Amino acid sequence: ENSPQRDIYYFKNSFSGKYIQVPVGNRSNGAIVSLGAYTGGDNQKFRISGMKASFLGDLENNDIFILPSHATNLALDLPSGNYSDNVQLQVWQQMNGNKNQAFAIVWDNDAKAYSIFSRQRSGNKNMEIYGFNKDNGGRAVLWEKVSGENQFWYILPVVREGGKFLIINKLSGKSLDVSGVGTTNGTLIQQWDFVNGGNQKWEFRKWQ
């Protein structure tokens, strides 16, 4: 299997940042559901009956834009086309034909997560959280792919907001965030605790 099941959801509480989970291994009636840290375990996976989820299977390995849903004229961007190591990602006016705004999202079956590669140059540049930082405000930067957990991401649908996704860092469990709910060019991209803000929700559009 090369991609995750399309109808699996994770539910994260916007106040505590904890995920809904059933006690590990408990399949009995009346099992008490609780909140816990994200582990990716089966006890944290849920299906929604009667709702068809549109996931990323049709976008895999295609060039795409990644746009914040609160300002979808802005796209995740490498400043001035810079693709050296440790360049901090920003959002910028979406411009078709500008490869510093084109990314490939690739499923890693071993890590059970996604890697996000820049199309600015053909190579191995991957979006990561700088220095394995788990703190709020940790910078999202570009770096050579080394398969560290800070370079892997969970891309989760925002329930009842069709077409919007959270991009969550596997190392920290924090959501990719537009700094300060900014809507101007050059606003920096960071990781932050999920608070259900529009600046933490993203739309995916195929590269034109």
How would you characterize this protein structure?
With 208 residues, this protein is an all-beta fold. The protein is 0% helix and 33% strand. The chain is built from no helices and 15 strands. The protein has strands at 19-21, 34-36, 63-68, 74-77, 87-88, 90-93, 103-108, 113-118, 125-129, 140-144, 153-157, 165-169, 175-178, 187-192, 202-206. A 4-stranded antiparallel beta sheet has the order 8-7-3-15, with no helix packed on it. Strands 4-6-14-13 form a 4-stranded antiparallel beta sheet, with no helix packed on it. A 3-stranded antiparallel beta sheet has the order 5-10-9, with no helix packed on it. β7 (103-108) and β8 (113-118) form a beta hairpin. The radius of gyration is 17 Å and the shape is globular.
